[in-house]
């Protein structure tokens, strides 16, 4: 056996998560004593709310949680997710249409694995989250990028989607609010895209993990609420990670038509069995308990959002649209490329990210992780002090 075929081609082709890679590098430098400020990780800097933690503590002590549960999840949690789906996505579903997963990533993976056969095309509005391409490829699908830049506030149009559609198109990926851009489609835009998808018989995978994190009175309208006819061909992906500061609890879910959810649950029964019962009990407390914790975190995110946009836009060569959701800004940095900074002339945003990490000790994720070069993603889910200091370092570097 040669070294070339020790690992399968399918698995060898998977790229490491760029966001986790940058975050790990930043943490390694911090551990070595360097004062790195990292905007790389997409996770709230707040602790999980206390009532959720307490529910988990009680669950640990209850022997019934020391055993297997149904692969699709605890019945009472599936019911709570169905109620949340009606409340926030405007879609009435039965608990049997819910599959609880080990984080939103597993839900994304299983959604593509459930729907795609080799050669099926997925229309992917770009910039996109770094995991989507790998999940699509592992399912045998073909990713078709549909790009919208800062001049469009990162929102694709029906005309662009139609231009990319072919007879092999099977799935539209729809994400609002977006990671990495924070862009949120208006209700009219959601309706137009949903009606177009419905007219062409496409499936939709809608990642709604950031739906409760929006600003300026904006509401993230679910595509199934805008176009109810799509409900039989839509899988909603969601979880507690971002809204409730529970990234480490690994609790997500998928909601969709009964046949698709049965197939996904069958896959999960062989892949991971059930999700940790402790995390499920904690998620139940999150969804059914007090919701004031969301408003408190959202207030802090909103404040930081304004600071990031204002301070980044003070740097000549950077264009930062104001995001309406999530906790990221995604500036166009093409104006900084091709110019020498501290003896280095970056030609790509990857090279620019390396430059600012080396010379300003600031970590950001380059646009290559999310599509075309020329952009950087900054998460503003970190403390107010470090957030401002990091941008001021950039202002000094690029002055």
Descriptive account of the structure:
With 399 residues, this protein is α/β, with parallel strands linked by helices. It has helices spanning 9-12, 18-31, 50-61, 75-89, 103-115, 132-138, 158-164, 187-199, 223-226, 258-271, 277-288, 292-312, 349-359, 384-397; strands spanning 37-38, 98-101, 121-126, 142-147, 169-175, 203-207, 234-239, 252-255, 328-329, 362-363, 365-366, 376-379. It has 2 domains: 10-41 and 293-397, Aspartate Aminotransferase, domain 1, CATH 3.90.1150.10; 50-288, Type I PLP-dependent aspartate aminotransferase-like (Major domain) (Aspartate Aminotransferase, domain 2), CATH 3.40.640. It is 40% helix and 13% strand. Helix 5 packs across helix 6.
Topology:
Elements lengths: L8 H4 L5 H14 L5 E2 L11 H12 L13 H15 L8 E4 L1 H13 L5 E6 L5 H7 L3 E6 L10 H7 L4 E7 L11 H13 L3 E5 L15 H4 L7 E6 L12 E4 L2 H14 L5 H12 L3 H21 L15 E2 L19 H11 L2 E2 L1 E2 L9 E4 L4 H14 L2
Parallel strand pairs: 1-10, 3-4, 3-5, 5-6, 6-7
Antiparallel strand pairs: 2-8, 7-8, 9-12, 11-12
Helix pairs in contact: 3-11, 4-11, 5-6, 5-10, 12-14
Helix content: 40-55%
- Report on the biggest sheet: 7 strands, mixed
β-strand amount:
5-15%
CATH-wise, what's the superfamily of the largest domain? Type I PLP-dependent aspartate aminotransferase-like (Major domain)
Structural class, by secondary structure, is alpha/beta
Radius of gyration: 21 Å
- Measured distance between first and last alpha carbons: 55 Å
CATH class of the largest domain: Alpha Beta
Overall body shape: globular
Q: How many helical stretches?
A: 14
Oligomer: single chain
What's the β-strand tally? 12
**Uncertain stretches:** none
Q: What spatial order of strands do you see in the largest sheet?
A: 2-8-7-6-5-3-4
CATH architecture of the largest domain: 3-Layer(aba) Sandwich
Instruction: Return the average pLDDT rounded to an integer.
Output: 95
CATH T-level topology of the largest domain: Aspartate Aminotransferase, domain 2
Order of helices and strands: HHEHHEHEHEHEHEHEEHHHEHEEEH
Overall tally of domains: 2
